[in-house]
Design a protein that fits this description.
Elements (H helix, E strand, L loop, with lengths): L10 H8 L9 E3 L8 E5 L2 E10 L6 H14 L4 E12 L5 H17 L3 E10 L6 E11 L14 E5 L4 H10 L1 H8 L1 H8 L10 H10 L2 E5 L5 H13 L1 E6 L7 H9 L14 E4 L4 H10 L4 E9 L4 E5 L2 E4 L13
Parallel strand pairs: 4-5, 9-12
Antiparallel strand pairs: 1-2, 2-3, 3-6, 4-6, 7-10, 7-11, 8-10, 9-11, 12-13
Helix pairs in contact: 2-3, 2-7, 4-6, 4-9, 5-6, 7-10
Length: 335
């Protein structure tokens, strides 16, 4: 029997599974689907936006990750994250007061920083797990005319990217593989890479809310597992479009480039929380880039959406090639 690798289910299988669940409730505005970051429910004057996501690649500051990663997916729908619930599964024989307290402190500090209320959840010491796991559940709300749904992106839209690629992957590898990185590049380089979760940072809440305030945004998506390439594929899948990306315009930090070279992995397929994809009418591109720059957020035009029949393409080294695909995140080759 062939078993699946670590990471997301193949999107084609996931699509088949989701089709087993027809949505009959008319208050469900956005249900489960490839490329949509959260569910949307009609709550009268506003929409309620709901998301759940686990943290599995790292244990360092796991409570912080759980809050920020889930808040990102609320913000990509144009919504403000408001309420957080957390399920903490702690390992048998390895859990003490220090571990539990640290996770709770990370969660509370993170929710306070984003003006989110921790309003519930569940905690238990679980049999047969070897490390703490946190499953986050985030709720937010949005004015109905400000909802961003990725299905609304269309051919001809510009595609922007905030910050740079593989921010999260860079930080995790720097934390987990500190010895060879320090030996190769030195202590100062290592500390900069480990600090990527704070600077440039994994949160895209400000990126998304500022962009949505500046213009009519057609789609927003934060690439996570499978990196930027997978994030672009998911957005294209949700909107029924193709895409052409200029590889030379994709921002990639020096630390990311060097770490990827050291471990022989590709930045395009490395877990990428911290960046935000934005699809919009080209007439609004300069305004959104300017607003984000004014608030200290790098935003770059990296390509445009095309007809679905044209597929997913990358312009690199003077040639147009198919966008690479990653069934497993590149981080799995390192950790």
């Amino acid at each position: 029997m062939n078993y699946f690798p670590v990471g997301k289910l193949d999107y084609r299988l996931l699509e088949k599974l989701l089709n087993l669940n027809p949505i009959k409730d008319p208050r469900i505005i956005v249900g489960p689907g490839i490329g949509e970051d959260a569910a949307v429910i009609d709550f009268g004057k506003k929409y309620l936006v709901a998301k759940t996501d686990p943290i599995t690649f790292t244990t360092h500051r796991i409570g912080w990750y759980a809050v920020n990663i889930n808040a990102n997916d609320i913000a990509t729908m144009g919504a403000t994250p408001k309420w957080f619930l957390a399920t903490l599964l702690l390992p048998e024989g390895k859990t003490n007061g220090k571990l539990a307290t640290q996770i709770f402190r990370d969660i509370i500090k993170s929710t306070q920083k984003l003006n989110i209320t921790l309003c519930g959840g569940h905690t238990e010491i679980s049999h047969k797990i070897d490390r703490p796991l946190v499953v986050g559940h985030m709720l937010g709300e949005v004015e109905k005319d400000k909802l961003v749904v990725n299905a609304h992106a269309k051919p001809g839209d510009d595609l922007l990217l905030t910050k740079g690629i593989a921010i999260e992957g860079t930080a995790i590898i720097a934390r987990e593989k500190s010895v060879p990185i320090r030996k190769k590049f030195g202590d100062r380089f290592l500390k900069r890479a480990q600090a990527f979760i704070d600077k440039p940072g994994l949160s895209v809440v400000a990126d998304a809310l500022l962009a949505n305030k500046a213009a009519k945004i057609h789609a927003m998506h934060d690439p996570t597992e499978g990196g930027l390439a997978t994030g672009i594929m998911e957005l294209a899948k949700a909107s029924g479009t193709g895409v052409i990306i200029d590889a030379e315009k994709i921002p990639c930090y020096e630390e990311t480039e060097q770490i990827c070279k050291l471990f022989n992995i590709l930045p395009l397929g490395l877990i990428a929380s911290g960046a935000l994809l934005i699809a919009l009418d080209p007439k609004d591109t300069k305004e959104v880039i300017a607003i984000l720059a004014k608030n200290g957020i790098l935003c770059t035009l990296i390509g445009r959406l095309t007809k679905k029949s044209e597929g997913l393409n990358l312009f690199t080294k003077g040639k147009l090639v198919k966008m690479p695909t990653f069934k497993v995140d590149e981080i799995a080759k390192v950790l």
